[in-house]
C-alpha cells in the first residue's frame, strides 16, 4: 500500500541538497548550475588556463565532477534491511498452532470431529468452533487471555502469550497473510529491532484494552499487534511527512484502517484488541520510526573534496514534539490501564455505549457470545463445573467419559 512512496533525493530546494566542488589549493567554485552557458571555444580555453589546466584536462575534471554529483543524487539515504524476523514470527505462530492441535486431540474428547482423517490434529465440531480449530479449554491451557486468571491468579504472562495463539485455520491464515503483507515492508525500512519491539508492545496494549472491556471468555490472536503495525505506518507518514514527495498513500492507508476497524463491529471479533493495538502502534510510530531529515543525511554522504553549504538539523521541531508527547501518553496509558485491570475494574460499567465499538447488534446477527467457558474442579470422584458467563455450577460423577467430554457438559450448563 506504500509502494509509491518516494524519497525526495532529487530537485534540491533552497540549497539544502546542493554541494560545491573544492579543488586543492583553490577557492570554492560556484555551482555549475549557476554559471552562464559557454558557447565560445576560446572562452572555455581561457577558463581552463586560469585554473592551470589544458582544455583536455579541464574536460576530464569536469567529467569527474559530474560523476561525483551523480553519486550524490543517486545514493540511498536510508539503509535497507533484509527481513527475517517477520517470516520467523509467521513460522512460530504456525508451529504453536500445530502444537495446540496436537494437544487438543479432538478424537479423544469429542465424538464428531471435522477432518477425522487427520487423527489427533482433526478439528472440533463446527458448532463448537466454526474456525476449524481446537476447543476453548485447550486454548486456555496454552495461554489464552482470560481476565479472571490475570487478575485473581496474577498470570499477567497471558497478555503476551495470547498474541501467539489462534482459534482456527481461518483465523491464523488471515492474520499471517496480513502480517507478511504489512510487516515485511516495515522491517525492510526500519529493521528487526524497532519493528519487533513495536509488534510486541502494540500486542500488549491490545490485550490491556480488551481485558478492561471483555471480561468473560478467552481471547487469542495477533490482531492487536497487526493493528499496531498499521497504526505505526500512519504515524510514520505523519512524522516523516517532509521527506516524502508522494502523499497519496496516506489516503489509501487511512481507508484500509477504517475498513479493518469497521469489520471489528461484527460479532465474535475482539475489536477492543484492535483499537488498543492500533492506538499503541500509532503512538509507538512517533517514537520508533522517526527519520532524520534528508539534508542532514546528505551531509554525511558528501564525497571527499566537496562541502555542504550549511549544516542541517537532524530532525524537525515538530518531530521532537510528537516524540515527547507520544512517549508520555504511552507510559501514562499503559500504567493507568494496568492499574485498572489489576484492580478488577470493568470499564463497561463506566461507559454504557462502549460495547458498541466491538459489536453492533442487527437483525442479521446477535452480539451474544456463542462460545462457552467453564471452570472445572475435581473433588474425589466428583467433577464440579462452573459456567463463567452465567455463574451456574453443576456437580457430575467423575467418570472417564465425563472427563473426555468436559466441553459438551459446559455447553449444556451455559446453554
Automatic annotation (TrEMBL):
The chain crosses the membrane at residues 81-103, 163-184, 196-214, 220-238, 250-266, 272-290, 320-342. One of its GO terms (cellular component) is Golgi apparatus. Pfam families: Rhomboid (PF01694). Residues 29-40 have a biased composition (Low complexity). Its EC number is 3.4.21.105. Its main location: membrane. One of its GO terms (biological process) is proteolysis. It catalyses: Cleaves type-1 transmembrane domains using a catalytic dyad composed of serine and histidine that are contributed by different transmembrane domains. GO terms for molecular function: serine-type endopeptidase activity. Keywords: Hydrolase, Membrane, Protease, Serine protease, Transmembrane, Transmembrane helix. Belongs to the peptidase S54 family. Serine protease involved in intramembrane proteolysis. This is RHOMBOID-like protein.
